[in-house]
Specification:
The protein is 41% helix and 19% strand. The protein is of the alpha+beta class and 343 residues long. It is rod-shaped and about 130 Å long. Bound molecules: phenylalanine. The site of phenylalanine has 11 residues, from strand 8 and strand 9.
Length: 343
């Protein structure tokens, strides 16, 4: 009898000691398991009931029960307190200062080339043009021969070409798309063909890879004046109200007549400045009436149908419009440069 009472006293003391420095509820749970769980001092005590003589059992049982109630209370009381403290601490640590300025997410912007391309597509699709995109690796036939530029034609020299094989090349002009369209579709045709082109050419205003935008209109009764009217509209929309166009005679094998198109200088209004080199005019694109031999080659009757075509360099338009003096800036991807086009 005495020994069980003493044992209980001892266990109580052990528990008190074990709980003295507990700071974490997790640790408390471990201690609780150590005493109350299997093999623990408290549970072992219940087991020892077997050895207690029957007449003493009710009393010993009561005492053990009291110990259990006491220790349960002790553990849950402390557990509650520790958990409340832990929660308080967590709240304090996770406090959000809603008055702090938010972190700004760095977002990108469209590349100037893309901006110009989108603008051009907007302007021309507003006039009823459809988009056609041809392949960048082209047959010699589409890039040259079908454009009235057979092998040995001196005009091939106008475009230094990257050949992949005698038959395949990197297209030097989006004009190749004209043939692909006219082979498949019969007039009326009104397409716009943007894309990358390649030439072995590299200086401040030329790059081995650049972008062009091709336009092609074929129908009955199309005249050079239609080209001029459309270009005037394009110049106003892209370079600003009051900008005019003029046509100068030029040469391309696939157009006849061929023209070089200038816009009146949008920087000085035509008076003469650095941008237009004192002339009042800036060259922006090549164009002309589709050569009848090209129409014929695509199975379109040149006595019934006529058409015009034009092609412009997108980087060139971007450089003019944004006052960029070196084409390399458009390909280097320098964020300090690109940032300036964020709106
Ligand atoms: N393809 C010509 C070039 O790259 C431009 C052009 C297109 C000229 C269409 C006339 C008609 O220089």
């Amino acid at each position: 009898m005495q020994s069980v009472k003493e044992k209980i006293k001892e266990i109580k003391q052990h528990i008190e000691e074990a709980l003295e420095n507990v700071k974490l509820s997790k640790k408390l749970y471990e201690i609780k398991m150590k005493f109350m769980g299997k093999g623990g001092e408290v549970s072992d005590l219940s087991k020892s009931m077997r050895d207690v003589p029957p007449e003493e059992r009710p009393e010993v049982g009561k005492l053990i029960n009291e110990l259990k109630v006491w220790s349960d209370g002790k553990f849950s009381e402390l557990d509650e307190r520790l958990k409340a403290e832990e929660l308080k601490k967590r709240y304090a640590e996770e406090t959000v200062d809603v008055t702090m300025p938010a972190k700004r997410a760095a977002y990108g912007a469209l590349h100037p080339n893309t901006l110009i391309r989108n603008e051009l597509v907007d302007v021309f699709s507003g006039m009823g043009f459809e988009i056609f995109e041809g392949p960048e690796i082209e047959n010699d036939y589409y890039n040259f021969t079908a454009l009235n530029t057979p092998a040995d034609h001196p005009a091939r020299d106008m475009q230094d070409t990257f050949y992949i094989s005698p038959e395949l090349l990197l297209r030097t002009q989006t004009s190749a798309g004209q043939i692909r369209v006219m082979e498949k579709k019969k007039p009326p045709i009104k397409i716009l063909s943007p894309g990358k082109v390649y030439r072995s050419d590299d200086d401040a205003t030329h790059s081995p890879m650049f972008s062009q935008m091709e336009g092609l209109v074929v129908d009955e009764g199309i005249a050079l004046s239609d080209l001029k009217g459309m270009l005037d509209e394009f110049a106003r929309k892209i370079f600003g109200e009051g900008v005019k166009t003029r046509l100068r005679p030029s040469y391309f094998p696939f157009t006849e007549p061929s023209v070089e198109v200038d816009v009146s200088c949008f920087a000085c209004g035509g008076a003469g400045c650095r941008l237009c080199k004192g002339t009042g005019w800036i060259e922006v694109l090549g164009a002309g009436m589709v050569n009848r031999r090209v129409l014929e080659g695509c199975g379109i009757d040149p006595d019934k149908y006529t058409g015009f075509a034009f092609g412009m360099g997108i980087e060139r338009i971007a450089m003019l419009k944004y006052g960029i003096n070196n084409m390399k800036l458009l390909f280097e991807g320098d964020v300090r440069f690109l940032k300036q086009f964020k709106d």
